[in-house]
Amino acid sequence: MARWDQILSLPVQNPPTLEFSSAELVWSKVEGWRDNIDRVALIPFARVDDFVRGESANKECPTRFHVEARRRRPAEITYKPKVDGILEYILYWCSFGPDDHRKGGIVRPSRTTYVPKKKPAGRPNTKRGCTCHFIVKRLIAEPSVALIIYNQDKHIDKNGLPCHGPQDKKAAGTRAMYAPYISEDLRLRVLSLLYVGVSVETIMQRHNESVERQGGPCNRDDLLTHRYVRRQERSIRRSTYELDSDDAVSISMWVESHQNHVFFYENFSDSDPFVLGIQTEWQLQQLIRFGNHGLLASDSKFGTNKLKYPIHSLVVFNSDNKAIPVAWIIAPRFSSGDTLRWMRALYNRVHMKDPKWKLAGFIVDDPSADVPAIREVFQCSVLICFWRVRHAWHKNLIKKCSEMETCAAIAKWLGQAVHHICKGDGTAVLFEEFMEDFVDAADFMDYFKATWYPRLGLWTSALRTLPLASQETCSAMEYYHNQLKLRLLNEKELSVYERADWLVDKLDTTVHSYFWLDEYSGKDEFARYWKNEWMSGLTAWQKSLQIPDSDVLVEGDYSKVVDQEDRHQLHVVRSPASEYAICDCNWAKMGNLCEHTLKSIKYLRDKGSITPSTSMFQYMQALVDMLRCPPYDSLIRDHALSLAVWVQTQLDAQLGPGSGQFMRQGLQLTAATPGHYTEVVNASNRRDTLPYVVGGLTELQHSSSAADNLSGGQIDQDGTCADRVPAVENSPVEMETSPLSISACATQLFSLDGVTSADVFAENGGVMVGEELDTTKNLPSTDTSFANSNGFEDDVLNKADCATMVDEQPQPLYVAPAEKSLDQCLRNQQNDLCCNSIEPEISPRLQNVDNRIDNAISSTTKPVESSLVNMAEASEVEKHMRIDSIDENAGITSVLTA
């Protein structure tokens, strides 16, 4: 076989880690130049930097590789597509070579101009004749692939002896023991601290103190010098954002010099607007780390009233459920075509690093968002976040209405209207009666009619077709928005807001530094030097979790919450049972969700006094819709039952037989009467178990090729979205072979108001996908995996009863209670008892709402055709799996409904 045919036939290797070294690649030997045998491998060209970083982080011999030589074919020059043609040639050499400045060492003839110093301070520690190097070639035949030729992979000199690192005895006591440069993490730390205003002396003082505490230097980072930090500070001080007087030219120059920070760029043209997508390497790592099987949220149109171009932020949620920006998109407008292009570029960049990366859900905050494009690119469910509208309503209500009682009544009415619209019970007609009933609040009504009435149709349609994000998500997004405003819009010279190059430079340097330091574990060492922009505490949701129940007192339509900083101060929350409650604290008066409101809601839900949130209601409704599959198409239900049995088996293996008592629930479906709504409530105090099972059931639909009820409906051929609950009888279902691969995404997608853990099946979830199931290996500790991670919000099902809003016909729907086995349920159904003679255990608890909204809902609600839940197809599952050994009290029905 010819040499190039042999090379091009090699597989392209793409390790899933963020960085990788030569030890993780399979090397092949082919005939090289002058009868040599070369060690070669093919990797994606976009991952060459990852290979260089991974190879530099050699534990046995830490180093850094620099570009010794580079040749690049200009893009404007035409060329023949030759099989051995090269677009780019890069020679990477260990930074301890190739010259040898040690005594008796050899310096290449091209470097004879070097004049030795009287005191060779540091020179013997930097150039010690290391021969380790490799070549990267980008071929014309395969431009997306990099050919790596790595023959000299040992860090030795011309004599074959170690010349640096721990193996070189002569390097002991010098900097040649470690890498020649500081690590990327320390470099980012120094730059970030300088950008936020910490002085050079403070940085060095804290650094030296930490080195002394550990007993002296043990790596290259411990040898950080005052000179290096001072040089970085001087470079920052002398830099300028205005690279050219023309803003467009200045942006182009910035993009050219920051290629690694740009994932999408289109300059102004006659047909397309300016679009710039910014993402640093750190942001990409956070997207891969927290976005895989997690949520990606959109904060659109930030700074519309102040900046030349608005900012579209994409954020993920870390382990504390705080928002981290992973990309910024700057453009004068956000059209559907533009969105599809930059989203695909972002998705391709992530998949280049991790081909197995997959989102569980995408959260939008704009009803006009291009939902079909999001589904097409990310292949995930889409949810909608209502925080922007709630924030605007709350803020203007406080500003334009002086009477707090009226504010509370209006906010409660608006909250009920949104709740019914999300359930599908209401339409925009509700708001017409609202404007008639509260005509006395003239100022707020004028604002509402002018600003929101024209948009109600669009928002109503979005709320009816897309699931609603939880209050925890709203709190995190609201906090991120305020942090971005505090850190970005703080310039004294207002004219800079009119330049796009200032915005790009500020985001890439100062703002990025703030968010990087938020995740930096040692930031508390610099706490005394924090400025206001540094302030990155807990979100309102997290603060509410720290308020004890003893600090809450409920009196009728009021609740009083003790201030945690000033114990002598009480905050009054009006209408505490509503998600749109009004609090008198300063943070709430600015329109924000405060911890006192959230704590009041949690307190009342723990007492069983109020219903679950809208998000949880939609979640349970999706579960019930799954159970109502037609009898002749029971594949989805069969798979759901098998998943439930698998979860029960895992529990038995961890907790012993009979562990199903923790998941015992009585899920009963009762009819909903027109004008009212029913709720899904918990039959036990264990509210943390159900989402783990039903998360997997729910994921079955959004992983189906045609049924996507959780993401707001299926996509028709013309690109439109159908109803939230599509017909299933004609829907081909694409099933996974591993139940965990189904539940991995859904558990993150439906982390509703703190019910589910942020990482269901926790740390091992990533490696379990696509593997054989093992009842002992893959499940994490039961202390953490089946515990509510933040101890908050919805009791999915309350203590005594459960109901749902599936039908409006008066006939009851039935699912076998937890105390009965599957066989008993099937026998009852065969005797026609399931639907006729068995009454629900507890009648649903109905929440009485205001008569005005009841009448409006009655006039706008259409009856939904009811269909009985048939459990006969469950017998198909019984043919293929052994369930006789499961304890009767922990039967398959209790697992399914737990």
Helix content: 25-40%
Describe the main β-sheet briefly.
7 strands, mixed
Mean pLDDT: 74
Tell me the structural class: alpha+beta
The fraction of residues in strands falls at 5-15%
**Number of distinct beta strands:** 17
What's the number of helices? 30
Strand order of the largest sheet: 7-8-11-10-9-12-13
InterPro entries: Znf_SWIM
GO molecular function: zinc ion binding
Domain SWIM-type: 568-605
Keywords: Metal-binding, Zinc, Zinc-finger
Describe this entry's structure for a reader.
There is one protein chain. By secondary structure, the protein is an alpha+beta fold. Among the domains are: 3-181, no CATH class; 186-237, no CATH class; 247-385 and 469-534, no CATH class; 390-468 and 538-616, no CATH class. It contains 30 helices and 17 strands. A 7-stranded mixed β-sheet has the order 7-8-11-10-9-12-13, sandwiched between helices. A 6-stranded antiparallel β-sheet has the order 1-2-6-5-4-3. It has a 4-stranded antiparallel β-sheet with strand order 14-15-16-17. Strand 7 (262-266) and strand 8 (275-278) form a beta hairpin. The longest helix has 21 residues, at 635-655. It starts with a helix and ends with a helix. InterPro entries: Znf_SWIM (IPR007527). Residues 568-605 form the SWIM-type domain. Keywords: Metal-binding, Zinc, Zinc-finger. One of its GO terms (molecular function) is zinc ion binding.
